[in-house]
Sequence to fold (756 residues):
Amino acid sequence: MSASNKSLVFVSEDLVFNLSNENVSYIFRVSPEGILEHIHFGGAIAPTHGLAAGPRREFRCTVLEFQGIKNYSLDDTPQEYPLFGTSDTRQPALHVVNSDGNSTNTFLYKSHEVVLDKPLLNGLPSARGNTLGNKGGDQKSNDSETLLLTLVDQTSELEVTLRYTIYADHDVIARSATIRNCGSKEVLLHNALSSSLDLPQSEYELVHLRGSWSREFEQERMDVPHGRFVIDSTRGTSSNAHNPFLAVLSRGADERKGDVYGTALMYSGNFAISVEKNEFESVRVSAGINPFNFQWRLQPEEEFVTPESLQVFSSEGLSGMSHVWHGFVNGMISPPQFDGVPRPTYLNSWEAAYFDVSHDVVLGLADKAKSLGVEMLVLDDGWFAGRDDDTSSLGDWFSDPKKFPNGVEETARLVKQKGLKFGLWFEPEMVNKESQLYRDHPDWLIHVPNRTLSTGRYQHTLDLSRTEVVDYLYARLDSFLSSGLIDYVKWDMNRVMTEVGSAGLPAERQLEVPHRYMLGLYSLVERITTKHPSVLFENCASGGNRFDLGMLRYMSQGWVSDMCDPIGRLSIINGASLLFPLSTLASYIGPVPNHQNGRQTSVKMRTEVGFFASARGLSLNEEDLNASEDEIKDAIKLYKASAQDMVDGDFSRIKYQDNEVCWQLISKDGRRVYVGYYHILSAPNLPYRRAKLVGLDSSAQYKLEHGNQVFGGDALMTLGIDLPYVDAMQHQDDTDYTNHLEKGDFTSRLIVLERT
Ligand code: GLA
Fold:
C-alpha cells in the first residue's frame, strides 16, 4: 500500500480509504465490483498496516448473490451508502424513483478527490473545517481534510458525491451527500440520507434523548433490538420529543468506559435516525431527513444536498463521547465570534411582567437589575404592536405605541445609558390570524387550502419556503438590529407544523415544503446573523423544541427548557450535556412556586443548579427580587466570577442516581474545579457518600475555596471527595458543620476547589 502524502486521508492504490487522526480511523474500500464496503470506524489503525478483518464472502445457502457474483450478497456486506433493490434488504441510504418508474439503483465508484479543509454545504448549516472561522472552505489548513467520492448509477445517470471530513484534533467524521441528476429526465427522491454506518456484529445498547415541553432531554437507554428502532420528527422542527442525536454503545458501557458511536444531525427539521439489526446481527445506523412524507423532484442538471451528519467514536464511555462533542461544538460549530466569550448575566422580563411590559416597567426593571449587579436587561414577549396576550400580533414587528410611545429603541437607549446591555425577544417565524400581517397576506402561512387549520398557542407558522416571506422578516429584524442598540436576540418558535402546504409551490411539489421551509429559515438566520455579527443570538423554541446542532451553527446559545424548577432541570441538563457543552446552555433563576410544576425551592438550590450554564440570569418580579435581594446579589456575583469558566471549561457528569446528582467543571487553565452536588429528597441517616472527580492533575494539590483542606488531585480522582449529608440530629443553626446539608428536600452544595 502506498499512502498519499496527505496527513489525514490516505488512499491506497487498490482504493482503500483510511481517514485517520491520532485516536480514530474511518476505513472503507472499493470492492472489485465498485461497491463501497465499510471496514472500520473506531480506534486508530495506521494506513500502512494490514487490516486484520474486512468484508467476508463466504457461502450462505440462504442469501441472494449480488449480480450473480458467487457468495457476494450486499445483505451482509457492510457498506457506505447502501441502495435498495439489489440484494440488500436493509434501510437504504438513498431511495429514488427513476424516470421509468422503477426504484432499483446500483451506485458504483467513479472517482475521488482529497481536499484540504472542508467545503461548506450550500444553503445548509455545516461544521467548519478549521478553527480560524468560517472561511467558506478556502482556508488552507491541516485542521481537517475532506474526501470527496463520486459514485454513479449507469442506468439512471444519477451521481452521488459523498463527503467525509476528518479532523486532526476532533474524533469526528462529518458526512453529507450530493445527489446529482446527470440524465435528461426528472427523478423523484423519496429518501436521501446523510449517513449510513454499518457496525461490526456485537452486543449493543443505544442511548437517545427524548422528552416533551418542560421535560426535554431525558436519556433513554435500551438494548439494540432486532428490527428497526427509529427516532424521528414529523413536526417540522427537530422537536423536543427526540433530539436528532443517538449513540450506540458496546453493552455495559458507562460514563467512563466502553465503545460509543455517537451520531448527530446538523438539521432542525423533520429527521430520522434509525438503528437496524438484521438476522446476521449487523447493526446499521442511518441518519438524515425523515423519508416519511418527503419527496423531492430532481430535474436534469439539478442537485440535492443532504444535511450534514456527524459521527463520533470514543472508547472512553459516554463522558468520552461528550468531551468530543463539546470540543467540536465549541470549536467547529458555534459562531466563532462568541467562542470562549463570557455571557452577560441578565434579568428577563417574562416571569417578571409577562405581557404587561411598557417603557416604565422596563426602566424600573433596569434600575433593579443595575442595583443587583446584573449586566443585561432582556425585554421578552409583549412589546410589539397590539400584543397584550398570546392571541394576537405575531408578525407585526413594530413597537407597540401604547406601551412604548417613543419606540422600543428609545427604551433600549435609556437602558443602555444605565450601563446595561439590552436584549429583545422575537418570534419571527410565526403569525397570529389577529394581526396586520395576516390581514395583508393571508396566504403567507403554512396551510392546506380548504382545510380548517390546527392552531397551537393561537398561532400559525409563516411559510418560509417563500422568499418574499423571508425577505419581509429579514427587513423587520434588520430595522431593529440596525439601531445598534440591541446586544442580544431571543429567537423564539412556539409551535410545530400541521396542515403543511405552501401557496407558493405547485401541487406536485407540496411534499418539498418542510425541507424548503428549513432552507428558507437557514437563509434568514444566515443573513441576519452575518449582517449583525456582534449580536448574541439565543435559539429558543418553547424551551428545547428545536435545540440542535443546525441552529447552533448560527446562534451561540439555546434556551434548553422552560423548566426552571431546579429539580425538573437536573435531568434536562444531565441529558443535554451528552451532546451540548455548557457554553450553549442558557438558564435563569425563576419564581417559586415554580410556574410549571408548582415546586418550592430555595434561592440557593435554584442558583446552584442554574450555575451549570453559560448564559445565566433572573426572571423574577420586583417583589421576589426584593424579598431575596442579598442572596440574589450573591448569585449574580458568583455567576459573574465564573462566567469565563462556563464558556471554556470542561464539564463532566459525575453521578446521577440514588436521589443524588453530581456534576463537575474544570476551568480551561485547570486552576478551578466546581463540583455541584444536589440532593433531591431528604432522608435521615444515609450512608456516607463520595464522588470521584475526573480530569484533574494527579500531581497537583487542590484547596477548598471556603476552608483550609487541601487534597491531592490523585486522591480526589481515586478516593474521591466526601459529599455532604443530612444528619437527623442536626440543628438548624448548626452552621459550623459545613459537611452537613440543611434538612429538607431539594438541597445542594457548590464546592469550589482551587489548584495550589
Ligand atoms: C416561550 C419561551 C418563554 C417566553 C415565552 C414568551 O414560551 O420559552 O421563555 O419567552 O415564549 O411568550
